[in-house]
Amino acid sequence: MTLGEEIRGHLPVLRRYARALTGSQQHGDNFVHTLLEVIVAAPEEFEPIPDARTALYRAFHRIWETVFLSDGEGSDDEDPLIRAANRRLARITPLARQILLLTALEGFSTEEAAMITGTDTETVEALLTEAVDDLDRESRTSVLIIEDEPLIAMELEQIVRDLGHEVAGIATTHDDAVAAFEDTDAGLILADVQLADGSSGIDAVQDILARAPVPAIFITAFPERLLSGNRVEPTFLISKPFRENTVRAAISQSLLFTPELAA
After folding, report:
1. Nearest by Cα to 164 from 191, 125, 132, 192
2. Cβ(219)–Cβ(190) under 8 Å?
3. Domains defined along the chain, listed by start
4. pTM across the whole model
5. 173 in Cβ contact with 153 (< 8 Å)
6. What is the chain written as a DSSP string?
7. Antiparallel, parallel or unpaired: β 188-191 and 142-146
8. What is the pLDDT tens value at each position of the chain, 263 positions in all?
């Protein structure tokens, strides 16, 4: 496979990332165009290590860190939701904003984000916390917790309240979860997979999503049940036992592009 073929498949998502990072389609495309010119001029300096995608983002970062441009608004014909999210992202410091996008939008691990940005995992985690805290000060919603283990439910409730959100309710079964959502109209769902009466948290979330397009985060000891390929796989999946910072970051990231909160 040629270098061009290795890179080509990653360009659409890199353009999306560049747009979110710079705040406009024009600036984002300019950065990507500059990156491609650099690679064409000196292909021997582009090493696809550990893989082409990570290396491409790392090369993009080197260009990005030399010139920081952002108009924070985007073009008039851009999705209003994207423009609103850009306005929120623009309030975060450049590197923290990049790390948030690398992990939330692009799905890189903290180790990969550190490699891309030329930092270490401790710095990445600290900046991610900073970005999450900045966003949490502006995002307030009600959260429905679907969890049948009382201690875990209490821990999640405390995390939610510490972030400044309200707890819409705690449900332990499928039926209770659907009923609680209809009563509270929650803006976010935290769900376990296996519930108290043997019912499914996956089914509960799917039934809720049929009523309203709310973001959902699965927190489970059975991640394989969600990654079987037989269902639509969730964007946010946290394995038990979980770290508090992981849950905090996932909540903020899931709310980033929620229409009611991004404006």
Report:
1. 132
2. yes
3. 3-136 (1.20.140.160), 142-262 (3.40.50.2300)
4. 0.59
5. no
6. --HHHHHHTTHHHHHHHHHHHHSSHHHHHHHHHHHHHHHHH-GGG----S-HHHHHHHHHHHHHTT-----SS--TTS-HHHHHHHHHHTTS-HHHHHHHHHHHTS---HHHHHHHHT--HHHHHHHHHHHHHHHHTT---EEEEE-S-HHHHHHHHHHHHHTT-EEEEEE-SHHHHHHHHHHH--SEEEE-SB-TTS-BHHHHHHHHHTT----EEEEES-GGGTSSSSSPPPSEEEESS--HHHHHHHHHHHHTT-HHHH-
7. parallel
8. 678 888 888 988 898 788 777 767 788 888 999 999 999 998 887 888 788 899 999 999 988 877 654 444 444 445 554 555 556 555 566 788 888 888 877 889 999 999 999 999 999 999 888 887 777 666 789 999 999 999 999 999 999 999 889 999 999 999 999 999 999 879 999 999 999 899 999 999 999 999 988 888 999 887 777 765 555 555 577 888 888 877 887 787 777 656 555 44
